[in-house]
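Entry 0007
Protein: EamA domain-containing protein
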Amino acid sequence: MEKKAIYAVILCAILAGNNGLLIKSMNSMSTGGIAWFRTGIPVLFLIPFLIKDKEFHFRGNTKKMFLASFINAIRMYLYLLAFIYTSIGNAVVLFYTYPLFVTAIEYLFFKQKLQKAQTGFLVLAFIGIVITYLGKPFSFASNDFIGMLSAIGASIGYAVTVILFKSETPNYSKNQLIFYQNLIGALVFVPFLAFLPDVELPQIGVGILYGLLIGIVVFKLFFYGLKELTAATATTLMYLEVVSAIVLGYFVLDEKLSWNILAGGSLILISSFFISKLNRKKVQESLSTSAS
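Output (structure tokens):
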């Protein structure tokens, strides 16, 4: 069962690498409009299945799930801004700092001990972020600055939702988890649908595809894996999304890979990977101790 979960997360990561291409292809649509397709389509798609399976009787901590859904709506908007304003490489590398923020949040709010190695990797990741941004102006007039800052904001938001959703996965089905994840965003971004008459029909089709592929298929695969794996293991496997996204950006959009993106991105990804590995080891040791 664990092997199937690993394969599911790997496929999830590869498909998720299409995020940037799909977002950039909807260039005549507002950010809020794209956000609605990303959140609203999954909600509409899942309603008949929830009714059929009698899963509208939610259990568990509904307040926590609504909070996670609200944070996810903010995270989604920042995530889209990141891909719209900067390159796919910049956006995806900085977004993948979220395992670092998971560690920081657990330390600050859940009083988990921070090992020396974790502290070192956090510092290394910060250096990587600085290197990634070398040569770019620190100004809100700079598209790269807005995009990269949005990517870090989206990373923090995602770290929070991973922790919240992981704590409630035993209480909900995959459909319920995806429904909750997108619900607040689907409601908040409804006003942006007023601008759809100005959008070309093919882009609306891309928006629907985006919502189904990324909002349904990708997250079904991820939540399937998350139920069988630890959050640290699932997030570690998701690093394949970075490779997939950068390769697609390079070959399809002809995006250039500068030395600072490669160097800084490598430091960020190495730090995030090893922090995830250390977190996984801590979980395993904790389980062993409780079992004995």
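Curator remark: The CA atoms of residues 8 and 242 lie 17 Å apart. The chain has a mean pLDDT of 84.
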